[in-house]
Amino acid sequence: xxxxxxxxxxxxxxxxxxxxxxxxxxxxxxxxxxxxxxxxxxxxxxxxxxxxxxxxxxxxxxxxxxxxxxxxxxxxxxxxxxxxxxxxxxxxxxxxxxxxxxxxxxxxxxxxxxxxxxxxxxxxxxxxxxxxxxxxxxxxxxxxxxxxxxxxxxxxxxxxxxxxxxxxxxxxxxxxxxxxxxxxxxxxxxxxxxxxxxxxxxxxxxxxxxxxxxxxxxxxxxxxxxxxxxxxxxxxxxxxxxxxxxxxxxxxxxxxxxxxxxxxxxxxxxxxxxxx
Length: 276
Hints:
It is built from ten helices and nine strands. It has helices at residues 14-17, 20-33, 50-59, 76-86, 123-133, 156-173, 193-201, 219-226, 229-235, 241-259; strands at residues 40-44, 60-61, 64-65, 68-73, 91-95, 108-114, 134-144, 205-217, 264-275. 40% of the residues lie in helices and 23% in strands. The longest helix is centred in the C-terminal third of the chain and has 19 residues, at 241-259.
């Protein structure tokens, strides 16, 4: 989820969100939440509904879905896809930003944010908005693969090689495309695991689970990540976004081959906190 309404009217995170790897990662987070039928859940940065589907599994009974899910995302395109793919009357869809939630206070039993908190510059405002949206004792859960600690030792050589091969791809396939002289966009504020703990605790939460696990990113998953515009824009700043996406996705095989790698390990952070 982007932080401003200037997000382009395309949505290309969907390929990664549909990978079995991503489903396993999110299912692990949902399992810790212990969602029960009848609860009201807010799915922040819901995208095309990958996390929503897992939440609904926990809300279903023999009689049908018991409870409500509100999906909130900045992208109208993503929400349109989610309406089609989720198609459950217990789910509502709202376009909006995570740090200014258009909801009544003390409305939800749980708020879930899947692999997006790193995209939000106003993290303090986000946590405060989530706190206000939760009932007393409510749960806020999120995960991220973009934090200080995400890179496994020795994998920096792959990411450098990936960028190099992507630049070579552009020069080879689109020699007329020139990199703009604009400076690199400001780096995102990647917190450490303990940084997230401190952020939550000073805003009225008690952290009940904070754990990291290592996933193995395959060629397929790396290609899906590379084709995501926000990732490609950061990796190949200055190039047209569509060409950057194509180059990052296409360069994965060459980078892996050159380094004789089949997978790239990466750490994933999971955090579950309870409103005091």
